[in-house]
Amino acid sequence: MERLLRMLTQLHPEVTFTPDTRLLEEELLDSFDIVTLVSEIDEEYGVVIPAQELIPENFATGTALYRLIRRLGEG
Amino acid sequence: MTNVLQYLEQTVREKPYHLFLTDGQRGMTFREVYDQARAIGSCLIQSGVVGKAVAVLMEKTPRTVAAFLGAIYGGNYYVPLDSQMPRGRLEAIVDFLAPGALLWDESTRGLAEALPYSGTRIGYSQAAFGMIQEEPLRAVRKAQLDIDPIYVVFTSGSTGIPKGVVGCHRGVIDYVEQLCPALGFDGESVFGNQTPLYFDACLKELFPAMKYGGCVHLIPRQLFSFPVRLVEYLNQHQINTLCWVASAMTMVSNPGTFERIRPRFLRTVAFASEVLPVRQLKAWRKAAPGARFFNLYGPTETTGICCYYEICRELEDDEPIPIGAPFPNTQILLLDEEGRPAAPGAPGEIYIRGTRLTLGYYRSPEQEAGAFVQNPLQNSYPERVYRTGDMAMRNSRGELVFLGRRDQQIKRMGRRIELGEIEAAAGALPGVDSAGCVCSGEPQRLILFYTGPAEPEALLTGLKQRLPRYMLPNDLRPLEAMPRTPNGKLHRSRLRELADQG
């Protein structure tokens, strides 16, 4: 989770991210950020997020995103 | 026809209660837009704001469009402002524009009040639900000419200072009348709008829908991060017409979205503002085999799109999609550096002739002089043409092919190179989603940035098979995301910065 929060902070150094920060509701992430995150997650965790998992629920919070990474990593 | 408001008025007579605009939260019928726009026009006239710029600082909702039309009803021209743009840039534009009125809505009220501005601030609700005053509206209409401005949109200037492009009734009417038959728009068209309302790109959805009584869905911006949801949205609302920037198309087709879900209702898919890789186009055509696909080209300075190409044959992966031919009543001149017609098949700069030319730049006579020029082919009478800075050539089929910007042309080992050609070659290789090439440093180095899983070594091997030696990049650098300008184009200056950082 810390690695993930670090990625988010790199995108937006002005924001203090916690696992429960509402990334979409508070409009912290735009489509450019999401493309970047998807690619960094591939690099850092070796996890490719397929199209059907590119949904707002999975990007709602750091916790949700981390859960997705764990789930896909196990598969 | 001499006034764009006639589109709305004709449709209000025929289909008053048809849905015109919706953003999923709120919808407005033609009648609602008509009434609210006329009330706004009345309010402006009463406030003494006629013949002025009316800044529209609103979130993207159906009401924004009613505000645009309201400005025109008041005899003014609307200037859409992006509430998300950096504060300093917004203040600079408002200062430069000095609008007669500033329209805000609930979501932008705080921002509107905080801006240093001494003119009339008007809240949307106060104006749109006020009195409609027929007499003053009629008087203003009677004085309007088709050469009067209806909007100013700000586009980035190469100097870094935004340029305001002033569009008029006549240009938009010519645009709509030529665009609609060419792309097959009609009363059944259900548009899925992607582009912001603060560029001229949305003209090709708003005015055709107004002309025929079609419907425009303002798709929530967030969906452009979530491709499966986006396609579900298209299907749910039976959206059949898309006019998107190429990068939005790629965002959908690239991650394998179409293996999960396909758009079911598409009839027309048009893309613009950048070169779409043929591979992405093929994925779309496969997913929507019943749709017609169009590549569009046109600078803001000549009112929206001026050239189009319907994809009607199989294209090679490394072949740029042609921009085809101009709409009727617009002419493209391909001229060499001396302003003479380019030799057949040779690259030339695109000059545009026609009634579609906008009125020019807002308060920028110097920029004006370099871009809107006397037709170099004749000097017997004054004739203004627009010099685009874009390079194109005619292929063996006579179709226009966009080559890149004049200022992106470089010379290397004594040969001319268009960076766009290198980008097209890279974009056609497997594992490359997008590519941007810049020239940097002394001695000159070509640096290719790209996104996608391709390894630099494999990419270079592939490029060697497609490009002459002198065009091969010195350096291949993968990026996580391609920097883009707010309207979705390749952000070349950002790439140059990256290149200079080494």
SS-based structural class of chain B? Answer: alpha/beta
**Biggest sheet: strand arrangement of chain B:** 2-1-10-9-11-12-13-14-15
Q: Helical proportion of chain A?
A: 40-55%
Query: Fraction of residues of chain B in helices?
Result: 25-40%
CATH class of the domain at 28-144 in chain B: Alpha Beta
Specify the overall morphology of chain A: globular
- CATH topology category name of the domain at 28-144 in chain B: Rossmann fold
Distance separating the two termini of chain B: 57 Å
Number of DSSP-assigned strands of chain A: 0
Total DSSP E strands of chain B: 26
Major sheet characteristics of chain B: 9 strands, mixed
- Cα Rg of chain B: 23 Å
Give average pLDDT of chain B, whole number: 92
Strand content of chain B: 25-35%
Number of helices of chain A: 3
Keywords:
heterodimer; A: 75 residues; mainly alpha; 3 helices; globular; B: 502 residues; alpha/beta; Rossmann fold; GMP Synthetase, Chain A, domain 3; nine-stranded mixed β-sheet; five-stranded antiparallel β-sheet; 17 helices
Write structural notes for this entry:
The complex is a heterodimer of chains A (75) and B (502). With 75 residues, chain A is an all-alpha fold. Chain A is built from three helices and no strands. In chain A, helix 1 (2-11) packs antiparallel against helix 2 (31-45). With 502 residues, chain B is of the alpha/beta class. Among the domains of chain B are: 28-144, Rossmann fold (3-Layer(aba) Sandwich); 413-501, ANL, C-terminal domain (GMP Synthetase, Chain A, domain 3), CATH 3.30.300.30. The mean pLDDT of chain B is 92.
